[in-house]
Amino acid sequence: MDISFNDLKFIQQIGQTLNLEERIKLKLAILKIQEHYTFDEVLFWGRVEGVEKDYYIAMGIQYKGQYEFPLKKFYWSSNNYHFAELPKYNEEYALRAENLREPFTGQHEHIVFKTEEEINFEDSLEIPAQLPAKHFSELERLSFVVQQIEFQCASIPVGSYRLTPTHELIRKTFKGVKPELKNYQHFRAPIRKDKQDLIARDEALYKEDFLDSLVEDSPNQQWSLQTDSTQRNITLRNLIWPGYVTYNNDYTFGYAYFGDGIKNSDFEFLL
Amino acid sequence: MLKEKLQEVKDQNTNLYEHLNNLLTKILLDNPKNAFELFEDYSFQVKSNGFKFEKYDEFDNAERSKIKMDQSIQQKTLKLINKINLGTDEEPQEATQTGYLPNLIEESYLYEWAGIGIDENYKIFKALTLLSVTKQASKLRFWGKIMGRQKDYYIAEGIATTQVEDGELPPEVEPRGTGVNTKSYWACNDLLNDKDWIELPLITPQQINTSRQIKYIFTGNLENDVITNPYFFGKEKHLLKAQIVRITQSTVIIPKGQYILREGEPREIDPAPEYKLPGFHDLKTLNDWIHFNQNILNCGRLVHLIPSELPEGIEPEAYQKQIENADPFENRLKPISNDKNAWKIRIVGDTTDYNPLSKDTNNKVNNGVIIIKSLVWPGLVTVYSNKVLSQLYYGYGYKATNNHFYPKQPQQVQSEQPDLPEQPEPNFPAEVPQQPQD
């Protein structure tokens, strides 16, 4: 979502918004990210609510010079509005974190799982030194959840970007799409064979829907496409990660996540 | 000369000269800021859409139908926003009176501080006013919004004063106006259609108990069947009402001290005499808030059912004591700090104490906003600021569960008993009538 926050009215359809203090402080903090690392765009990705404090996530995108798909870098901050890069997470424990249903506490050092690894090393005197075990902290859980949501949900309307002959993505003039699920595609490097072939054959340069389509996501009922009463402001919500919204109207599009960071892993049973 | 040269390079329908004409016209009309970067993009679009320079002022059909749709929506919106007119355009009939309805616009400002955005709050407010007039509902308020798979529900809570015939109700169902069916709820999918507000039906204790065992995301269509195990006997509107009642009964909270227990009847409450809403500093912790409503009992009602015909030998009072011990009441007005991990409280906004205008500097003014969100029913939020207390639900209508939800397995279908082996029919010789013995 753009940091002018003009698009908050779409997020209001699921009942979320940012208050005045959050908007002002986030805008300043996000502009600060640009000082250290120049991205083509720095966007506000979303807010993950915790019991005591919340986390705010920003995303920097670099289009130029990236072959096939732009580079995305994530930054997090707590209620102090000071953004730092989101660290890598420990892969083994991360999978266990996917189905956790406890809410985030808001304390990023809070330990989610205690790991059993201890790092031993022997120095020259042959006395084994042990480093304290690095437990799986809430910050890693946050990092994992953000990457999962971005991979599984992040989507854009068809016709919003196109592939240049040098395989870079650039934004097009966006004219709006009809509210149908086939008009949306994932905002990630395509993993499905048919789209990869399309790009390899360079046919993607002339097509609008060259990224993975949402229609092929399974289960298909996880996407809920609705408009407001003017029928112009369309929101596409995800039900497995409730709080994720892709929105567009005739002039603008974007996406954001405003939720508690808990996955509805039992989604198939809720239908 | 140049023109002829360009006209040589051609395709079936058009040539390079015309294409350049069309392309430049489109760019001049659209006037984008980064025309240089989008030049190839435009060229491709013009080729695929067949944009023609001569027809630049004609809309294509898609645009025209969009405009028609817009017009009808704008007309409906206008009707909603204008003064309520119960008659027709020629004979306007004003609305006589409306019941109490809190000002949603002012409350939206508070909810924005809590991070809850009420979309289209003015349209909701006007739609509720219209509902209040047409159904003569008193004490109406916007209860919240329940998101669904295909459509969302806007829910209004109130007390309907028009008489409604319910017909014969089974004895365990609490009749309209009592117990779980005290308040009426209306649900609406489309705010612009004033006929869309539908009152949700009365619910039975079995429906409440079944709803406690299932977890369901609503579709948005009130008449859908709810296919679950254990089977929910009712349509989506019954489940919706059951969830709304469960949420309301367990999450309405008020500041401590506003109500007191009635002497002699500890299950009833009265407003405390000479009570003033406390200031900001007295409500900052969870200890200062208490539950307002009674909990729903395990049997699915608010009060136990005493059957009119008791078995012989049992006194009514003893019987009442027996069932109350089995399914006890919870204390009324219990503080919410006793609920483990169920609430989170935040303070946002400007929390400086300002001196009021009058000379009395004891009652300082504080514009801070106290937000209490429920962790058990995610989406339920209570806000308090400057003597305004309000509550709203914006969610999917199910409880937060700690474990993965697995529906109960359906019972085993017993296999049929194998048929008994066939026995040959007893084959007695045919009876010969005995000769009478001499």
Automatic annotation (TrEMBL), chain A:
Domain of life: Eukaryota
Gene Ontology CC terms, in alphabetical order: radial spoke
Main location (coarse class): other
Keywords for this protein: Cell projection, Cilium, Cilium biogenesis/degradation, Cytoplasm, Cytoskeleton, Flagellum
InterPro entries the UniProt entry points to: Radial_spoke, RSP9
Cellular localization per UniProt: Cell projection, Kinocilium; Cytoplasm, Cytoskeleton, Flagellum axoneme
Stored PANTHER family: MITOCHONDRIAL RIBOSOMAL PROTEIN S18, RADIAL SPOKE HEAD PROTEIN 9 HOMOLOG
Family membership: Belongs to the flagellar radial spoke RSP9 family.
Listed name of the protein: Radial spoke head protein 9 homolog
UniProtKB/TrEMBL annotation, chain B:
Region (Disordered): 408-438
GO cellular component: radial spoke
GO annotation (BP), single: cilium movement involved in cell motility
Coiled coil: none
Regions that span the bilayer: none
Compositional bias segments (type: Polar residues): 408-417
Compartment(s) where it occurs, according to its Swiss-Prot or TrEMBL record: Cytoplasm, Cytoskeleton, Cilium axoneme
Keywords recorded for this protein, A-Z: Cell projection, Cilium, Cytoplasm, Cytoskeleton
Name used for this protein in its record: Radial spoke head protein
Species of origin: Paramecium primaurelia
